Structures are given as structure tokens and as C-alpha cells.
Amino acid sequence: MERTHYAVExxxxxxxxxxxxxxxxxxxxxxxIGFIIIRDKTGYAQIVVKKRxxxxxxxxxxxxxxxxxxxxxxxxxxxxxxxGFEIVPDNIKVLNxxxxxxxxxxxxxxxxxxxxxxxxxxxxxxxxxxxxxxxxRNLFIxxxxxxxxxxxxxxxQTPKIAAAGAEGGASLFPVQYFDQWAxxxxxxxxxxxxxxxxxxxxxxxxxxxxxxxxxxxxRHLAEFTSFDYEMxxxxxYEDVARTLESIVVDTLKFVKSEGKPWLEMLDKEITLPKTxxxxxxxxxxxxxxxxxxxxxxxxxxxxDERVLGKIMAEKGYSAYFIVEYPEEExxxxxxxxxxxxxxxxxxxxxxxxxxxxxxxxxxxxxxxVVERMxxxxxxxxxxxxxxxxxxxxxxxxxxxxxxxxxxxxxxxGITNIREVVLFPRDQFRLVx
Length: 432
Ligand code: AMO
What we know:
The chain is α+β, with helices and mostly antiparallel strands. The protein has helices at residues 7-10, 57-61, 114-119, 121-124, 128-150, 189-194, 237-258, 260-266, 282-291, 302-314, 366-375, 384-387, 404-411, and strands at 17-29, 33-39, 44-50, 68-77, 85-96, 154-155, 161-162, 173-177, 180-184, 202-210, 223-232, 279-281, 319-323, 346-351, 354-361, 397-403. The strands form three sheets. An eight-stranded mixed beta sheet has the order 6-10-11-16-15-14-13-12. A five-stranded antiparallel beta sheet has the order 3-2-1-4-5. A three-stranded antiparallel beta sheet has the order 7-9-8, with no helix packed on it. The structure holds aspartyl-adenosine-5'-monophosphate (AMO).
């Protein structure tokens, strides 16, 4: 192995022999002595080289920035280095020389355009603040999984190529599937629901979802990461909402405690949302917004959500549910509220003035699902594979879909969702 320690770990190995490896961040030539600062995933280490010990010092210091080297040497304390330690090398090996000039600045001193950064994402990630975002993203995913396992959910993987969409035809991506047409799934909706008739009971998935959305916004992508769960034997949508609230809070607590070094690097803090998250009835939200001079129909637009976000922030809430939406704008799989015609058991979770998740109690009665499909202009024949699961013992159930990229961006106070996605896909970007 070229490495025994990461850069930051070397600090705890004073007096020991270590092997570290990474990219040359900077070199400094002070005549008889030279410094090479290398960077790896964890941070930086300084190599101090004396000319009389390395006659090739000048050459070493001329290595282009971002070349990859491996260093074997002894760690010593250093009061002069701001890292507090340096490495006296026995051996320096050049693993690969970088070409110059670099396609972008990676010192973090000159800010590059978003497009330049995304075109060179591999290099963009060498910037501390960018790397920190993705180390935190890793913790968000880990935190969600941990919370779900603790709540007895089973992790599943459902197909991403399917014969029918669940979230409206306009945003489907067709794919040629052998000699027929198929679609990239917009969400695992149909599959997670079918699993409720399977005894798996409580399932979750973290996976890609595809939407052919031509909208060029800072919160929509053509491919995003969706966190979905579905749970059976609920008695109302409240069971689903309560679960979501605890998953969101537990995940944020986990990231807050495990992500300290990365949060510090970003100079950010995670603020835990005030609990319990308010449950605002759609009609009350409508009145609140109409008092602000907004005209509201059966759904909320981006600007309505933003205004509501402001009102709720003034009351100290960053997360809140909007419950009991009119059924008209909600998908066929949502249960109507029979005691309150025109309304449904659908809810959204909004977070800092933006929709983060939607879900609710589903219609689990075969005849009623078929009825709702027809009402929404869908042909039940195209959904036979799904409807079959409702004929032979489908328990009452509900669930949610949450946009993971939005969750991360909003929690970190990042405006553009592309900042938290490694290789974002939108209508203008298919490579890298
Ligand atoms: P919905 O369509 O509301 O619901 O999607 C759920 C959540 O996914 C996120 N999201 C997106 N994120 C980035 N780019 C996009 N283009 C995009 N579209 C959606 C949002 C949204 O709240 N099947 C239902 C969920 C359910 O009822 O279980 C669904 O997909 O954060």
C-alpha cells in the first residue's frame, strides 16, 4: 500500500514512520529547505525537505500542482507549521504528474463558474468546501438509513425501468426496452405500495427518481435521489407524518453530531427544527396566504410556499406539515376524505419554505383505486400488475417520498440543488 495514514491522522503519529499519499496543493522553496503540502480526503500534511538530503529538491518543488505523490517518512511536531506537525521524508515517489495549466482553480481562492466546476467535478471536489458538502451528504444518507433500521423498516430496491408511471405522464422519460417502450420511474410509488400486500409491512428505499422536467430552477433536477417509505396497518395519515417527523429530526441530529469537522469546514451549523412540526390544514394555509394577498386554488405554487415559509419562520418553525389537501391536485393513489368531500388524506412536509416531501394515506380498496384512476384519466388496464395486489388482501397503508437533495441543500443553507449532487442532470446537462 502507498498509504498507512490519512493526512489528518498523521498528526496523532508523532515520532512514527508513516506513509501518506495525495495531491500536491502547494510547494514552497526557501533555498536550502523546501516544503510540499499535500492534500487528501481528510485534509493537509506538510513535507519538509532539506536540499542536502535531497539533491533533486528543486525538481521536486517544480512538480506541477495537483500531481500525485506518496511520501514515506517520520512525523515530527512543528510549531512553525499551522498544522502542528510535518513529515521528514525518507522517500518521495511521484505516482502521477498533473498537466498544467489546470482546468480550474482548486485552492478555493478564485471562485469558478458553476458550469466549469460541474464540467470538472472530479477536480472541484478537491476544494475543501465542496468535499465537505459530499462528506455531509454521505452522513445524511447514513443517518436516514440508521433511523429507518431503528424503526424496523426493511430496505428494498425497486425497478427503475417500468411499464407505467405513477406521477403524471408529462414528466416521463421513455426508454427503448428491447422491442417495446418503457419508462424511467418517477418514483417507486407503485412498487412500494404493492409490497404492502407482501408481508414486508414497512419498506424504504433510497434511490434515483427521474422526471423529464424542463423547468430550469435551483430545486429541480431530471434525476434526483428519492427517499421513500411505505408502512402498512396505519390508522390514519398521522401515523405516517409522525414517523416522518422523527426520521427527519433523528437524521439531522446524526449529521450534526457526526459531521462536526465538515460543518466547521463549511462554516455552517445545522439547526434542529422545532417539534412537534405544526400540522396546518390546507384550508387554514389558504386563509393565511389569502390574508397576505395571494390567490390560492387547490394547490400551492413555489411563491406561496415561500411566503408560508416566511410566516412560519416568524413563529420559529422551519418544518411544518400541510395536511388534508384538496383531492383534485393529488394523485390517484391518495385516499379521499369521505367525511369531507373534495378533500384527501394527502400531506406535504415543507421545510424552509419549500416542499420537501409529500405523502399520505393511500386508497387500499380495489374498487376505489380503480374509480380514482378513471377520475384522473388513467386507464386501469395499464396498471393491472399494480391493481392485482389490491384484490387479495391489501392492508390500509401510507407513505412518503422525500427529495434527499433538497433535504441536504436546505439543511445546509445551500440555494442551488446542483451543489449537493455529484453529477447533476438537468435539461442542459448530460455529461459528465
Ligand atoms: P412528489 O412528486 O411530490 O411525490 O415527490 C416527492 C419529493 O421529491 C422531490 N422532488 C424533486 N427533487 C428534485 N428534482 C425534482 N425534479 C423533484 N421532483 C420531486 C421533492 C418532493 O417533495 N410518490 C410521491 C410520494 C409519495 O406519496 O410517497 C411522489 O413522488 O422534494
